[in-house]
Amino acid sequence: MRLDHLTITDYRNIAAAELTPDPGLTVLCGANGQGKTNLLESIWMLTGGKSFRGSKDAELIRRGEAFSVLDARFEGRGREQTLRLTVGGRDTRRPGRSGRLNGTDYARAGAMAGAFTAVVFEPNHLSLVKGGPEGRRRFLDTALCQLYPGYLAALRRYARIITQKNALLKSYEITPGAAQLLEAFQTELVKYGAQIMIYRRGYLGNLAPAAAKNYEEISSGAERLELRYLPAASVEDPHPADALAEKLAAMEQAELRAGYCLVGPHREDVEILINDQPARVFGSQGQQRSAVLAMKLAEAAMAGELLEEEPVMLLDDVLSELDDDRQTYLLTRIGKNQTFVTTCDTAAFARTNGKIVIVEGGRVRE
Ligand SMILES: Nc1ncnc2c1ncn2[C@@H]1O[C@H](COP(=O)(O)OP(=O)(O)OP(=O)(O)O)[C@@H](O)[C@H]1O
Ligand SMILES: [Mg+2]
């Protein structure tokens, strides 16, 4: 995947800009509040019309204007493609996000997802290491949903049964036929839960070594990253479903007392260790940032392998808190992916072999 050209009109603080990125690395330089993240976000919008900051339409359109328009030319699936994304204000004739992909109109920009693929790192992703297990499960779920439609189906079924089982556990004593109902839920939970666990085990089996290798490179071999799946029940078992069924049976009394579900993939976690110590507790800021980055780069590599096309890497504010060596690694790394990095360091040009783009007051200068 390669973005060849982007024309931006009235997107956030960018009134009009043209960007011709490097096929390898492009470094977006500028002081705080100039529009670097906005520019990066506009590229991310091409993946399906969603902002990685979860912003509303009115926030994306330049203040005082009616429409935002992004016009992109990119190389994907071995051919030149064109994509136009429009965000219309509430009072316009076409409000919301729509688009045009290779000449075909789409009333919903979301329907164009998959044509242009990218992976983004932004500072909020640090919660992957710093935050609770939900963030790490979401990371796995998002990646797996994009790769396997079957995973999304299993996840939805599973979530629905968990809701139903929670309701039952809460009112068990007063529900007629509660025991049979619970048994039916357990059977379903085992079926879909085991599917989820097998997908997660498979994904982490590939992601963990790739992330470890990235981390080793980022830290110039000084530190070691390890990702460890903490499954709800043994996944080493030849039949994870049996192991999960056993665990559910063993916990049934405790669940009845608690009044909600205590075991299953919805409570799983991934342990992140740096030099054998939990990164969440013992990792320094720079180490935590490096760990998230290593995971994100691994995520991109895995998506690239499966989709047979390397996604574009968008790295926002990744350089802060990293020491010189780690910054240099990122500013000179030309991996397989086309990469965009933002930085406030105006002297970055001296340290990168990528193309420098200056962002100042919403203007983009190449
Ligand atoms: N819809 C909008 N219309 C006009 N300006 C906007 C809009 N949305 C955001 N901005 C402006 O964009 C600027 C922020 O841009 P951005 O977040 O890209 O900065 P940045 O260069 O990434 O800065 P930092 O280095 O601090 O991360 C803010 O000054 C904000 O007021
Ligand atoms: Mg920014």
Structure write-up:
This protein has helices spanning 36-45, 57-60, 127-130, 133-147, 149-170, 178-218, 240-250, 252-258, 279-282, 285-307, 324-332, and strands at residues 2-11, 14-19, 25-29, 67-76, 79-88, 96-101, 104-106, 118-121, 225-230, 269-274, 277-278, 312-315, 339-343, 355-360, 363-365. It is built from eleven helices and 15 strands. It folds into two domains: 2-117 and 309-365, P-loop containing nucleotide triphosphate hydrolases (Rossmann fold, 3-Layer(aba) Sandwich); 126-282, Glutathione S-transferase Yfyf (Class Pi), Chain A, domain 2. The protein is globular. The strands form three sheets. A six-stranded antiparallel beta sheet has the order 2-1-4-5-6-7. Strands 8-12-13-3-14-15 form a six-stranded mixed beta sheet, sandwiched between helices. It is α/β, with parallel strands linked by helices. It is 41% helix and 23% strand. It starts with a strand and ends with a strand. Adenosine-5'-triphosphate (ATP) binds at residues 12-13, 30, 32-38, 59, 61-63, 317, 344, 359. Magnesium ion binds next to helix 1.
